[in-house]
Amino acid sequence: MERPYKFTIILLVTNLFVYLLMWQSSGMRFSMLGVFPYPVLVAYGAKLNFLVASGHQWWRLVTPMFIHVNLLHLLVNMYSLWIIGPYVEKLYGSSKFVVFWVLTGIAGVVASYLTVVSPDTPLGALGRFIFKIHDEPSAGASGALFGLVGVLFVFGIKFRHELPEGFKRAFGIGLLPMIVLNLFIGYVGRGIIDNAAHLGGLAAGAALALVVDYRRPGERSRVAVVWQVLRVAALGLVAISFVQIVRHFRDPVAASLVPVAVRPQSTANDFVVYAKAMNEAQEALYAAVQEGDSQFVTSAVNNLNNAPYLDQKAHELRETIRNLLLEAAAINEPGAAPTNAEEIRRKKSQLIHRFGVWVKDYNEWLKTEGKKYGGLVEVKPQSSQ
């Protein structure tokens, strides 16, 4: 345990550096919870299935493990890396640690890629925990972090007879409470948290620990050179992936995908398209909550996803009502919990209240920032009676 953990520190610094670049591209606005604009996430390498499949941008299976959606996301993941990373790097050595990080991170992104399904796919509560019905930017180091947890979990079981008592409580089955807690948090936050990426990273880390031995003290490994070559290959793959991001940074994939720092001024037509999508979203939400009719939710969400980016506040307003739509549709889904009528009424009442708060924020934006886009339409909240 006296071995250095330099690559843990290098990964911490790298993630922080990428975050600062994204912050600069976002206009250097500080927010602990506000997510980066959609164009910035895409420009810096977030995973989007249609860009991987149709655009052949394979590097988006690698880069997401180095980018984060906001400051809180970064701090939580980097704190976890600081706690877990040194154990894995000291036990297995820097070469294996780097390979583990990259492979489990990719496994998490691939799992996320494979679990995006058609919006009309019937999903129960467990299905919504793993699968996603919308192709949205996915990013974060949590898949690789779950991979390191998987490594320590299997390590603790394989060498349980050799470990001191303190390590037995920290590794192996001692990690079960933490794993279960994180999966429970993922279940509560399904639709927001990419649980497939977590499970994919966890499974990949466990599989690697099953077949890879750790570096025993004083042991001369005959395969050390092989692992050093693999480390260079893993780092080379990361470097090539970010070179591809730089090369395609300003690609005209779609007008809304151009980074904020370089995109042209939004036009009045952009505002019209955006406002139309927001109005349709409100109508769909009203039908879903008040009439129990979710047939318009899918088209409304798709229109929101395709609406042009105007500014950070407009983006946050769009994301909020999109999440409200998805929650309303989940409540109306046949067989979805809760099935108790009183509980359903309570949840719908909460949605109506949050929608009312959203309407006030949206109207305020229309009266201030919205004016510069060439339109001002007062939005009235739907009756909750």
Number of strands: 0
Strand content: under 5%
Secondary structure: helix percent? 55-70%
Alpha-beta classification? mainly alpha
Basic shape: globular
Please outline the major beta sheet. Answer: none
Termini separation: 64 Å
Mean pLDDT metric? 82
User: What is the number of helical segments per DSSP (H or I, 4+ residues)?
Assistant: 15
Report the oligomer. single chain
* Helix-strand string: HHHHHHHHHHHHHHH
Low-confidence stretches: 253-265, 375-385
What is the rounded Rg? Answer: 23 Å
Q: What would your notes on this structure say?
A:
This protein has 385 residues and is mainly alpha-helical. The chain is 62% helix and 0% strand. The protein is built from 15 helices and no strands. It has helices at 6-25, 38-43, 49-53, 71-92, 94-114, 125-130, 142-158, 165-170, 176-188, 195-211, 224-247, 268-290, 297-306, 312-332, 341-367. Helix 4 runs parallel beside helix 7 and helix 5 crosses helix 10. The longest helix is centred in the last third of the chain and has 27 residues, at 341-367. The chain starts with 5 loop residues before the first helix and ends in an 18-residue tail after the last helix.
